[in-house]
Write a structure and sequence with these properties.
The protein is of the alpha/beta class. Strand 1, helix 1 and strand 2 form a beta-alpha-beta unit. Helix 7 crosses helix 8. The two termini are about 50 Å apart. About 40% of the residues are buried. The chain binds S-adenosylmethionine (SAM). The site of S-adenosylmethionine has 25 residues, from helix 9, strand 15 and strand 17.
Length: about 425
């Protein structure tokens, strides 16, 4: 017989989870999200459950299962690694007519947990018609496909997917006023690889009527947009830097005032040398509702893509992210190079390639060692990514020899040696795997 699908409203209702291992630690957070009053019975638990118990979010009985534990429960989860205990729990639940999910044996379980997830206001649950023999990965894959479709906007239905906190049903498709009409989303697109935008960023992008994009934004995502979406290349707005920003601000406001949902797609994180806050302020000053979606900043994401950890235990306790759009010594520079030269922390330099010689001189002058390792990573996370490793003393000539051009991130500090070690080990692992 087919299972009967039901949504349980567990707010304030007792759920007893017997077992404290991997299955329990997957189930309990979802039960808490549903507002359940969770009691875990297990002599030992996973660290995450211990933390929840310490924070008072669940009750943890640190002992084995005892008859009577299921009393008062609306739902019971039997997820120990001992089938005889699970059987005893399930029998007790059955006797008191409480639904019980047995993790070890779908065939003996009174209820089944669907592969579930959330996209905006919609909960998706997928259950195989025959969980006893079906492959749970199949249900999970279907769930993921449905969620991906909803999140990217590829799947939508009239009126069914919208409201606060979720992407709207598109007005142009279904009629009516889209919930986000007249608003702006400032979206961090990540360092360039289209897979590194956040889920929310991608959802909102898919719903936009107008997209203002930057040179360093993940432009391949623009291909996925509907044909009627207007794309404005903000990198091509003339008038110089300051004026261009004014024109971008004006465009955001005027398109929103015309009743459109405007996405401003930026590289990295909008608030890290991205002028995102200027755009937020411009919208708010014009009375236009605006939201910001954080992004993976190139300051951290690009070093990681070249295996450089910006911190590493025993090597670097601090990292400093610095814009070098003006050289040290330039009267517009507000950077304390003396402090950076004297520190042993990692330096992550943006917009530095063209001024790398002046930067190296300044750091050496203020105390950094000439052998300090330096990594220069151009086109990070893109198929054209290139990395050169050097030292503070040599880096200027190496950059010139190799013809490194922006965009690039320069990392200064001993963490670069960790990347060398990882790369070396990776070589062996790859050889071992493929050989
Ligand atoms: C105006 S800043 C914007 C930073 C951006 N908001 C962020 O959080 O990544 C531009 C600089 O970011 C760095 N950058 C951005 N994307 C990069 C990438 N894919 N590879 C290397 N550097 C990148 C370069 O230093 C570039 O000159």
């Amino acid at each position: 017989m087919d299972p009967y699908l039901l949504g349980l409203r567990l707010g304030g209702r007792r759920v007893v989870v017997v077992g404290g291992g991997g299955v329990a630690s997957r189930r309990v957070p979802a039960l808490l999200d549903a507002g359940a009053d969770v009691m875990v019975v297990s002599p030992k638990t996973a660290a995450s459950l211990e933390d929840l118990a310490a924070a008072g979010r669940i009750r943890w009985e640190a002992r084995g299962y005892r008859p009577g534990d299921c009393a008062g429960a609306w739902l019971v989860c039997a997820c120990t690694d001992d089938p005889s205990v699970n059987a005893a729990v399930a029998a007790a639940a059955e006797a008191q007519r409480t639904w019980c999910v047995r993790a070890d044996d779908a065939g003996l379980s009174a209820a089944w947990t669907p592969a579930s997830g959330r996209a905006g206001d919609v909960r998706v649950g997928v259950l195989s018609a025959d969980p006893e023999h079906g492959d749970p990965r199949h249900s999970a894959a279907i769930r993921d496909a449905v969620l991906d479709g909803l999140r990217s906007g590829a799947l939508s239905a009239p009126g069914g997917y919208g409201g606060a906190g979720s992407p709207p049903v598109r007005g142009g498709v279904w009629g009516g006023r889209p919930p986000r009409a007249g608003t702006v989303a400032i979206i961090g697109g990540g360092p360039g690889d289209p897979g590194l935008i956040t889920v929310r960023g991608r959802q909102l992008l898919a719903e936009a009527d107008v997209v203002l994009t930057d040179r360093l934004a993940p432009r391949s995502l623009l291909d996925e947009l509907r044909d009627d979406v207007e794309i404005i290349d903000a990198g091509k707005i003339p008038y110089g830097r300051a004026m261009a920003q004014e024109h971008i601000n004006a465009a955001l406001v005027s398109h929103a005032r015309a009743g459109r949902f405007v996405a401003r797609l930026k590289g990295g994180d909008p608030f890290v040398f991205g002028r995102g806050a200027e755009e937020v302020l411009a919208c708010l000053r014009a009375g236009v509702p605006v939201t910001v979606v954080p992004g993976v900043t190139s300051a951290v994401g690009v070093p990681a893509s070249a295996w450089v950890p910006v911190t590493h235990r025993g090597v670097a306790q601090d990292f400093h992210v610095v814009s070098v759009h003006v050289a040290p010594g330039d009267e517009r520079s507000t950077v304390n190079w003396e402090l950076l030269g004297g520190s042993s922390g990692t330096l992550v330099l943006l917009m530095a390639v063209e001024r790398i010689g002046a930067v190296a001189d300044e750091l050496l002058r203020f105390g950094r060692n000439r052998d300090t390792p330096v990594s220069v990573i151009a086109d990070g996370t893109l198929p054209t990514q290139r990395t050169i490793n050097s030292t503070l003393e040599q880096v200027e000539s190496r950059v010139a020899e190799e013809g490194i051009r922006p965009p690039a991130i320069v990392v200064v500090g001993d963490v670069v040696n960790i990347a060398t070690e990882i790369t070396e080990l990776m070589r062996h692992v790859t050889a071992w795997e493929t050989g």
